[in-house]
Amino acid sequence: MDINVAQQTDQSRYVITVDGEEAGFADYKDSAQVREFDHTVVHDEFQGKGLSKPLIKFALDDTRAAGRSIIPTCSAVERFISKNPEYQDLVAF
């Protein structure tokens, strides 16, 4: 299984593909130095394969590298951060 995650800046989202096929995405909205993650989806046919973790991890790592903080209004992103406290410093208060 060939998994790839990339940012699609023109659509304000990160996309995960499996063997070249879109498997899911994480939408965001940017304002100033804050990126709000508001919706994450793993398509039905790809659920149960553990794809949300690499998708969210890549998105958060990329956001950190860009010098932004985040607002996790998406429950999947919020859960990921609660299970991975090393990302807690990204959350804008």
UniProtKB/TrEMBL annotation:
Residues 6-92 form the N-acetyltransferase domain. Coiled coil: none annotated. One of its GO terms (molecular function) is transferase activity. It comes from the Bacteria. Keywords: Transferase. InterPro entries: Acyl_CoA_acyltransferase, Gcn5-rel_NAT, GNAT_YJDJ. Signal peptide: none annotated. Pfam families: Acetyltransf_CG (PF14542). This is N-acetyltransferase. The lineage of its organism: Bacteria, Bacillati, Actinomycetota, Actinomycetes, Mycobacteriales.
